[in-house]
Amino acid sequence: MAFKDIVGQERAITALTSALKSGQVHHGYLFGGPDGVGKELAARTLAQAANCEQNDGDACGQCGPCRRIATRNHADVLLLLPEADQVARGWAGRADFEATPSREIKVAQVRWLGDRLAYKALEARRKLALILRAEAMNAQAQNALLKTLEEPPRDTTLVLVSAAPHALLPTIRSRCLMLAFTPLPLDFVAERVMREKKVDRATAHLCATLAGGSLGAALALDLDSLSRRHELLERLESLSAGDARAALAFAADFAPDRAAAEAHLGLVSAWYRDVAALASGGNEQMLVNSDLLDLARRSGATHGALEALRRIRLCETAKAALNGNASPRLQMEQAALRFVFPEL
Length: 344
Hints:
By secondary structure, the chain is of the alpha/beta class. The protein has 16 helices and 5 strands. It has helices spanning 10-22, 39-51, 64-70, 83-88, 107-118, 139-150, 170-174, 186-197, 201-210, 215-220, 223-227, 229-238, 244-254, 258-279, 293-323, 328-340, and strands spanning 28-32, 77-80, 127-132, 156-162, 177-180. The chain has a 5-stranded parallel beta sheet with strand order 2-3-4-1-5, sandwiched between helices. Helix 6 (139-150) links the parallel strand 3 and strand 4. The protein is globular. The protein starts with 9 loop residues before the first helix and ends with a helix.
């Protein structure tokens, strides 16, 4: 993979290639933007390009350093991410950790990184540390990283990759050069979804829109959950104020596990964005759920924009709790109950 193969991030890629060609690579970068839009790919390509045998400001992908970095076997390119993510990616097993794999990046991991960066490079022109999901660093870990950012070893670059840069300490952000990664073009995402998921164009475009231009999120969407979209939204709109039994039944049906709960909360959040837009006089052609226009109109007339926005916040709060390992069923129940009991 080379920089020229990364789609939709021209400004960030131009900044990186210019720095490589001029020899002005920064000691600390913060790649910020939604998940699944190329941040991690760009970070890995930066590591390859900085050490590629061709040394022309891009990665060839074929030389020894490029191949070793791509397979995570380069001694001078270090990766840091939460233990739970290592297990999820197949990079480690649960038995590799003494306790339940953590969803945080812990201070011990950052100290290990600092110790490794202090060693002289074995073969690289530039050592790199890629901290993936950097927002997962707890407060102690972030404070431990500050010393390395303030006094980085020579010819060393740290790249923090984050979908939530605001969750990092201001002192961390101020010591990094921020590069913004934006959502990808919907047509590009839809084409990739069609090719890789073997779905029709309408379904692929819906996936791209629901994922907000994130290729990773679009490919990860549960197609079984997506197929229940009509049922989900019609059941949702049939909930009556004060009907706790119906709200709990709704949660039981649509949150059988974590993946389903995340997918369905995303669908509900997108639905109420449509409702809020309609209630505010927005363009009907811009709706995600354009095939449910009549239902969206009725919901907008019933709830109004402010209530729709309140429900979006409830969905986003529930999704954030799921990322923190909360119970899927409980989070869906709480959201549904607060839909029918606004005073809660």
